[in-house]
Amino acid sequence: MIRIPRITQAFPVDRRTLIKSAGFAAAGFAAFPLAGCKAQDASMLDSTPGSNPLAIPPLQRGEIEQGARVFRLSLTPGQKEFVPGVASPTIGIDAPYLGPTLEMRRGEWVQFHIDNKLAEGATVHWHGFELPAAADGGPHQLIRPGERWSPSFEVRQRASLYWCHSHLEREAGPQVYAGLAAPIFVRDDEEERLDLPSDYGVDDIPLIVQDRVIDGSGRLVYPLSMHTRMMGVRGSRIFVNGTENAVFDAQTGQLRLRILNGSNARLYDLSLEGDRSMQLIASDGGLLDRPHIVRSVRLAPGERAQVIIDLSEGRPLRLLASSPENAMDMMGGRGMMGGGMTGRGDSGDASADVFQILDIRPASSAQRIRVPTQLASLAPPDLSSAVRTRRFVLDMGMMGGGMSINGAAMDMDVINERVPVGQWEIWEIANASMMAHPFHIHNVQFRVIDRDGRAPPPLETSLKDTVIVNPREQVRLLLRFEEHTDPDLPYMYHCHILEHEDAGMMGQFVVVKS
Fold it and tell me: Which of the 8 DSSP states describes residue 200?
């Protein structure tokens, strides 16, 4: 049995960590997609000191077998050089770190065969998908070392960026941090008729944004302490698709960026240097009704956004991110709204105003392509259809010592809610704590009704599966679970700050027959 070496711990922990032992493997993604994808070759990049060609995950479409799209994947140990010349132990999906972009189409049946080649158990959660509870990949679908898990389901989602990641009980944080995550592209006819940029690796690019803690020797560390349990693990160095100081040589006049906040705990306010505008076209669950001209987009862990950037003038652009301070001050003010940064803590979180996410270098000026003024048909949420309201209160206890939802910590043996299938409901998510929490619900795409009675921002006007709830704020959601009943096997709802999830800010629900 291959075993994974322990990731260096900056602080002692009172539970086992993910990484135990492993053999050597090549680091990271290839800096270009698989053959057949017309993306830039790393050799074409005239890299400046300190810059690196953006790694683009290989595109994997699976194989069609007996009418289903079949993916064969392995959870594997590996090593990656986060600092040149210094290898750190990692895990990935068919790769030493992270995994390929899985592509599928709405309406087709998909089948997965996932082999666990790690030295300990893991899970693979299909984040954003509506699917049977047995295929969800939550903590109940454990894949033990040496075993294979073969879930299958119909792809019901609209075209968008989704992702898969570890959801192991009390170990999601270290496993995702070590690399167990990958993007998923769902395509459909409705979106393709709009002729949006869709050439993978050329004008349609996934960006998995993650912060990491690198110690003085150049090794990746996953620190746990009282501070990081409360605030979440946040690092001072940013990697995009595993690349630090990433640069992309664009060959087209427009670029579609599909951005995933894949960090454990850090929030990002993404913008273009020089206050340049972007066209926001999609959120978690697909296209907005129309493009929105925005100067910045805020993403919490687990959230996604798609933007189109105009490169027709041929000028280089830089995608930046500031990180809002995620804590209320002593007077009860909302630190989330201040846009500042916390100081250096146990996680190595550095005081800095702005992170560099991606340098974009156009080849030359090009013709500007107009984005359609109408993207998707989205009726406003109809509250009259709701037959029940449920309330969920997120809290942390004193100094983060009691992570809970509705006063209870996660218990694998307790079903917290039983929800009838096909029934529209309003879920009120109230935050009683000093921090903002991204709230994720499995097996559904919901609509955001309002925030403390205020209309949601553009990013929240389409379908969502994860929503940020600020301190002392209430967010109302309209949702319905359309099929897949199981009276015994649950789905999860939880905070997507992974250290909070691991510490108990999670609950379970089953979908039952009406």
Answer: B
Nearest 5°: phi and psi at 164?
Answer: -125, 150
Per the structure block, which two tokens stand in for 265? 């705990």
Query: What is the pTM assigned to this prediction?
Result: 0.89
What pLDDT shows up at residue 367?
Answer: 74
Report the distance separating Cα 88 and Cα 178, nearest Å. 9
Helix (H, G, I), strand (E, B) or coil at 374: coil
Contact present, 468 and 498 (Cβ < 8 Å): no
Identify the three-state secondary structure at position 147: coil
Residue 434: count of CB within 10 angstroms of its CB: 20
Pairing of strands 68-83, 86-93: antiparallel
Alpha-carbon gap, residue 321 to 355, rounded angstroms: 5
Cβ count near 132 (within 10 Å): 18
Cα 342–Cα 178–Cα 269 angle in degrees, nearest 5: 35
- Greatest alpha-carbon pair distance for the chain in Å reads 62
pLDDT digits (tens, 9 = 90+) for 422-455: 999 999 999 999 999 999 999 999 999 999 999 9
Kindly list the distances between the CA atom of residue 251 and the CA atoms of 54, 179, 356, in Å, as whole numbers in the listed order. Answer: 14, 30, 21
Q: Quickly state the pLDDT bin for 398 (edges 50, 70, 90).
A: confident
One-letter amino acid for residue 466 of the chain: T
Where in 134-253 does DSSP place strands (E)?
148-149, 152-154, 160-165, 181-187, 204-214, 220-221, 237-240, 246-250
Contact call for residues 167 and 496 (beta carbons, < 8 A): no
What's 43-63 look like in SS3? HHCCCCCCCEECCCCCEECCE
Q: What are phi and psi of 229, to 5 degrees?
A: -65, -35
Is 60 exceeded by the pLDDT of residue 462?
A: yes
HSE, side-chain direction, 13 A CA sphere, residue 386? 17
Q: How far apart are CA 352 and CA 343, in angstroms?
A: 8
368: confidence class by pLDDT, cuts 50, 70, 90: confident
The pLDDT value recorded for residue 328 is 60
